[in-house]
Amino acid sequence: MMTIDDLVAAISTLQRSDLERWISEELVVPRQDAGSLAFSEVECARVRLICTLTYELEIDSATLPVVMSLLDQLYDTRRRLLSLTRAVAVQDETVQAAIIAAVAPGDASEIQGKLDQL
Questions:
Q1: What string of DSSP letters covers the chain?
Q2: Taking the domain 1-60, which CATH number applies?
Q3: What is the pLDDT of residues 11-58, one digit of tens each?
Q4: Which residue of 8, 14, 28, 79 has the smallest Cβ count within 10 Å?
Q5: How many angstroms separate the Cα of 1 from the Cα of each of 25, 29, 68?
Q6: d(Cα 5, Cα 47) in Å, to the nearest integer?
C-alpha cells in the first residue's frame, strides 16, 4: 500500500492536483486507512495508466472517464472469459468438445489449445 505522497513521489509525471481530481471523480478509489488514503498495487497501476493516457496520449479530462469505463469493461470481460475457460477446462472431454463445437465451430483447435494450457 502506498500513501498519496509516496505515489506522487514514485511517478515523476504525476501532479498531485490531477490525482486529487481523479480521486474526486472516482477514476481512482484508494482505501481510507487511519484517516489517510492508501493505494493498493492495483490502484497504483491504475494511476500509472491514467498518467499515460493523460500526459503521453493527451486524452482530455472529459474523455478520460469514458476511456477508463471502456477499459474497465474490457478487463471485466477478460476476467469473466478466463473464469469460463477454467470452468470448461475442468469438464470431461465430451462436454469440452460439445462446448467448443457450439461456441466456435471454425476455431475448435485454437480453443482446445488454450484449454490444454490450463
A1: -EEHHHHHHHSTT--HHHHHHHHHTTSS-PEEETTEEEE-HHHHHHHHHHHIIIIIS---TTTHHHHHHHHHHHHHHHHHHHHHHHHHHTS-HHHHHHHHHHH-GGGHHHHHHHHHH-
A2: 1.10.1660
A3: 999 999 999 999 999 999 999 988 889 999 999 999 999 999 999 999
A4: 79
A5: 21, 13, 22
A6: 13
Q: What is the pTM of this model?
A: 0.76
pLDDT of residue 34: 85
Taking only Cα atoms into account, the Rg of the chain, rounded to an integer number of angstroms, comes to 20
What's the pLDDT band for 101 if we cut at 50, 70, 90?
A: confident
Q: Would you say how long the chain is, in residues?
A: 118
pLDDT digits (tens, 9 = 90+) for 71-88: 999 999 999 999 998 999
Cell of 64: 478520460
The conformation of residue 36, written as its DSSP 8-state character, comes to E
Place of cell 493516457: 53
